[in-house]
Amino acid sequence: MTETPPVIEVSVAAAPSVVWPALRDPELLRRWHGWDIEGLDDEIREIYFGDDVTEDSEAFTLALGGADRFSLHEHDGTTLVRITRPPRDADPAADDWYDDVTEGWTTFLQFLKFGIERHGLDERRTLFLEGPVADGDSARHLLGLDKLADMKVGDHFTAVAETGDLLHGVVCFVGEHQTAVSVDDLGPGLLQFGEQPVNSARPNGGAQILLAAYDLDDEEWAELEQRWTEWWQARPGAEPAT
User: Which branch of life, at top level (predicted)?
Assistant: First the structure.
Protein backbone atom coordinates (compact mmCIF):
# COMPACT_ATOMS: atom_id res chain seq x y z
CA MET A 1 0.00 0.00 0.00
CA THR A 2 1.12 3.54 -0.72
CA GLU A 3 1.87 5.52 2.42
CA THR A 4 -0.43 8.51 2.92
CA PRO A 5 1.68 11.70 3.05
CA PRO A 6 1.65 13.46 6.42
CA VAL A 7 -0.57 16.47 6.99
CA ILE A 8 0.63 18.85 9.72
CA GLU A 9 -1.76 21.40 11.18
CA VAL A 10 -1.91 24.09 13.83
CA SER A 11 -4.67 26.51 14.78
CA VAL A 12 -3.58 30.14 15.17
CA ALA A 13 -5.74 32.72 16.93
CA ALA A 14 -5.53 35.25 14.11
CA ALA A 15 -7.15 35.81 10.74
CA PRO A 16 -5.56 34.38 7.56
CA SER A 17 -4.76 37.93 6.46
CA VAL A 18 -2.57 38.24 9.58
CA VAL A 19 -0.92 34.84 9.20
CA TRP A 20 -0.22 35.09 5.46
CA PRO A 21 2.52 37.76 5.71
CA ALA A 22 4.40 35.41 8.07
CA LEU A 23 4.80 33.11 5.03
CA ARG A 24 5.78 35.81 2.54
CA ASP A 25 7.87 38.41 4.42
CA PRO A 26 11.49 37.26 4.93
CA GLU A 27 11.83 39.30 8.12
CA LEU A 28 8.76 37.64 9.62
CA LEU A 29 9.74 34.18 8.38
CA ARG A 30 12.98 34.21 10.33
CA ARG A 31 11.00 34.84 13.53
CA TRP A 32 9.47 31.36 13.42
CA HIS A 33 11.30 29.30 10.79
CA GLY A 34 14.59 27.74 11.86
CA TRP A 35 16.96 29.16 14.43
CA ASP A 36 19.82 31.64 14.65
CA ILE A 37 22.54 30.30 12.39
CA GLU A 38 24.68 31.79 9.67
CA GLY A 39 22.89 31.22 6.38
CA LEU A 40 19.33 31.33 7.73
CA ASP A 41 18.37 34.16 5.37
CA ASP A 42 19.72 32.18 2.39
CA GLU A 43 17.77 29.11 3.54
CA ILE A 44 14.57 31.13 3.75
CA ARG A 45 15.08 32.59 0.27
CA GLU A 46 15.73 29.14 -1.20
CA ILE A 47 12.73 27.47 0.45
CA TYR A 48 10.08 30.21 0.21
CA PHE A 49 11.12 32.36 -2.75
CA GLY A 50 12.76 30.01 -5.26
CA ASP A 51 11.81 29.93 -8.93
CA ASP A 52 9.74 26.77 -8.38
CA VAL A 53 7.62 28.28 -5.58
CA THR A 54 4.03 29.17 -6.47
CA GLU A 55 1.60 31.20 -4.40
CA ASP A 56 -2.02 32.28 -4.50
CA SER A 57 -2.42 35.18 -2.10
CA GLU A 58 -6.21 35.27 -2.56
CA ALA A 59 -6.65 31.58 -1.75
CA PHE A 60 -3.86 31.68 0.86
CA THR A 61 -1.96 28.75 -0.65
CA LEU A 62 1.79 28.37 -1.08
CA ALA A 63 3.46 25.45 -2.88
CA LEU A 64 7.16 25.10 -2.17
CA GLY A 65 9.68 23.67 -4.60
CA GLY A 66 10.07 20.50 -2.57
CA ALA A 67 6.32 19.91 -3.04
CA ASP A 68 5.36 20.81 0.54
CA ARG A 69 2.16 22.84 0.35
CA PHE A 70 0.90 25.44 2.82
CA SER A 71 -2.77 26.38 2.97
CA LEU A 72 -4.60 28.69 5.36
CA HIS A 73 -8.22 28.03 6.33
CA GLU A 74 -10.33 30.56 8.24
CA HIS A 75 -12.66 29.32 10.98
CA ASP A 76 -14.49 31.61 13.42
CA GLY A 77 -11.73 34.21 13.46
CA THR A 78 -8.88 31.71 13.73
CA THR A 79 -6.65 30.23 11.05
CA LEU A 80 -5.90 26.57 10.50
CA VAL A 81 -2.39 26.43 9.03
CA ARG A 82 -1.94 23.19 7.12
CA ILE A 83 1.18 21.73 5.55
CA THR A 84 0.58 18.83 3.17
CA ARG A 85 3.77 16.89 2.58
CA PRO A 86 4.68 15.19 -0.72
CA PRO A 87 4.73 11.38 -0.93
CA ARG A 88 7.81 9.84 0.66
CA ASP A 89 9.02 8.46 -2.67
CA ALA A 90 8.59 11.75 -4.56
CA ASP A 91 12.34 12.43 -4.27
CA PRO A 92 14.39 9.27 -3.55
CA ALA A 93 17.52 11.37 -2.94
CA ALA A 94 15.78 13.10 -0.03
CA ASP A 95 14.13 10.00 1.43
CA ASP A 96 16.71 9.64 4.21
CA TRP A 97 15.73 13.02 5.63
CA TYR A 98 11.98 12.82 4.99
CA ASP A 99 11.09 12.22 8.64
CA ASP A 100 13.43 15.02 9.76
CA VAL A 101 11.62 17.47 7.48
CA THR A 102 8.23 16.30 8.77
CA GLU A 103 9.34 16.78 12.38
CA GLY A 104 10.93 20.10 11.46
CA TRP A 105 7.69 21.45 10.02
CA THR A 106 5.86 20.22 13.13
CA THR A 107 8.31 22.16 15.29
CA PHE A 108 8.23 25.33 13.21
CA LEU A 109 4.43 25.50 13.13
CA GLN A 110 4.42 25.55 16.93
CA PHE A 111 6.86 28.48 16.87
CA LEU A 112 4.67 30.23 14.28
CA LYS A 113 1.59 29.82 16.49
CA PHE A 114 3.41 30.89 19.64
CA GLY A 115 5.15 33.79 17.96
CA ILE A 116 1.94 35.24 16.53
CA GLU A 117 -0.31 34.63 19.52
CA ARG A 118 2.06 35.62 22.30
CA HIS A 119 4.40 38.15 20.67
CA GLY A 120 2.96 39.40 17.39
CA LEU A 121 6.03 37.84 15.73
CA ASP A 122 8.46 40.11 17.55
CA GLU A 123 12.18 39.41 17.33
CA ARG A 124 13.41 36.38 19.28
CA ARG A 125 16.70 34.76 20.22
CA THR A 126 17.09 31.04 19.65
CA LEU A 127 19.32 28.25 20.89
CA PHE A 128 19.45 24.91 19.08
CA LEU A 129 21.06 21.83 20.62
CA GLU A 130 21.22 18.44 18.98
CA GLY A 131 23.20 15.22 19.04
CA PRO A 132 23.36 11.62 20.20
CA VAL A 133 22.31 10.59 23.69
CA ALA A 134 23.08 7.56 25.80
CA ASP A 135 21.12 4.43 24.93
CA GLY A 136 17.52 4.78 26.09
CA ASP A 137 17.94 8.42 27.08
CA SER A 138 15.94 11.41 25.82
CA ALA A 139 16.06 15.20 25.72
CA ARG A 140 13.17 15.36 28.18
CA HIS A 141 14.97 13.17 30.71
CA LEU A 142 18.24 15.06 30.28
CA LEU A 143 16.39 18.32 30.89
CA GLY A 144 14.92 16.88 34.09
CA LEU A 145 11.37 17.25 32.79
CA ASP A 146 10.16 13.66 33.14
CA LYS A 147 7.16 14.94 35.13
CA LEU A 148 5.80 16.34 31.86
CA ALA A 149 5.51 12.86 30.32
CA ASP A 150 1.85 12.43 31.28
CA MET A 151 0.78 16.06 31.03
CA LYS A 152 -1.64 17.37 28.42
CA VAL A 153 -1.84 20.56 26.39
CA GLY A 154 -2.95 23.38 28.65
CA ASP A 155 -1.54 21.89 31.84
CA HIS A 156 0.57 24.24 33.96
CA PHE A 157 3.92 23.02 35.26
CA THR A 158 6.83 24.07 37.44
CA ALA A 159 10.12 22.20 37.32
CA VAL A 160 13.79 22.73 38.08
CA ALA A 161 15.64 21.84 34.88
CA GLU A 162 19.05 20.19 34.88
CA THR A 163 20.35 23.42 33.35
CA GLY A 164 19.73 25.08 36.71
CA ASP A 165 16.68 27.02 35.55
CA LEU A 166 13.39 27.08 37.44
CA LEU A 167 10.87 26.69 34.63
CA HIS A 168 7.24 27.80 34.89
CA GLY A 169 4.81 27.56 32.02
CA VAL A 170 2.13 25.70 30.13
CA VAL A 171 2.28 22.59 27.94
CA CYS A 172 1.68 23.91 24.40
CA PHE A 173 2.06 20.80 22.25
CA VAL A 174 2.45 17.07 22.74
CA GLY A 175 3.28 14.98 19.68
CA GLU A 176 4.52 11.48 19.07
CA HIS A 177 8.16 12.57 18.93
CA GLN A 178 8.30 16.05 20.46
CA THR A 179 6.86 18.34 23.11
CA ALA A 180 6.70 22.13 23.38
CA VAL A 181 6.17 24.15 26.56
CA SER A 182 6.12 27.85 27.35
CA VAL A 183 8.69 29.30 29.76
CA ASP A 184 7.31 32.33 31.59
CA ASP A 185 10.66 33.85 32.60
CA LEU A 186 11.91 34.05 29.01
CA GLY A 187 9.39 36.54 27.71
CA PRO A 188 7.55 34.05 27.78
CA GLY A 189 9.65 31.79 25.62
CA LEU A 190 8.99 28.46 23.95
CA LEU A 191 10.99 25.30 24.65
CA GLN A 192 10.72 22.37 22.24
CA PHE A 193 12.42 19.05 22.88
CA GLY A 194 12.19 15.64 21.29
CA GLU A 195 13.65 12.76 19.35
CA GLN A 196 15.55 12.91 16.09
CA PRO A 197 14.55 10.20 13.61
CA VAL A 198 16.83 7.29 12.77
CA ASN A 199 18.46 7.46 9.34
CA SER A 200 21.69 6.34 7.68
CA ALA A 201 23.60 9.34 9.09
CA ARG A 202 22.03 8.86 12.51
CA PRO A 203 21.66 5.08 13.00
CA ASN A 204 20.79 5.39 16.69
CA GLY A 205 18.66 8.51 16.37
CA GLY A 206 19.31 11.44 18.65
CA ALA A 207 17.75 14.29 20.57
CA GLN A 208 17.20 17.97 19.94
CA ILE A 209 16.21 21.07 21.84
CA LEU A 210 15.07 24.38 20.38
CA LEU A 211 14.60 27.29 22.77
CA ALA A 212 13.22 30.70 21.79
CA ALA A 213 13.48 33.61 24.23
CA TYR A 214 12.05 37.10 24.04
CA ASP A 215 12.95 40.37 25.79
CA LEU A 216 16.34 39.27 27.15
CA ASP A 217 19.22 41.71 26.94
CA ASP A 218 22.60 40.70 25.51
CA GLU A 219 24.12 39.84 28.88
CA GLU A 220 21.15 37.75 29.99
CA TRP A 221 21.08 35.84 26.72
CA ALA A 222 24.84 35.24 26.66
CA GLU A 223 24.71 33.77 30.17
CA LEU A 224 21.79 31.48 29.30
CA GLU A 225 23.33 30.38 26.02
CA GLN A 226 26.66 29.52 27.64
CA ARG A 227 25.05 27.66 30.54
CA TRP A 228 22.76 25.56 28.35
CA THR A 229 25.51 24.80 25.83
CA GLU A 230 27.94 23.66 28.53
CA TRP A 231 25.23 21.51 30.10
CA TRP A 232 24.46 19.89 26.74
CA GLN A 233 28.09 19.21 25.94
CA ALA A 234 28.49 17.45 29.31
CA ARG A 235 25.47 15.17 28.83
CA PRO A 236 25.83 11.36 28.89
CA GLY A 237 26.44 10.10 25.36
CA ALA A 238 27.82 13.38 24.04
CA GLU A 239 30.41 13.13 21.32
CA PRO A 240 33.84 14.48 22.32
CA ALA A 241 34.42 18.10 21.36
CA THR A 242 36.72 18.55 18.35
Answer: Bacteria
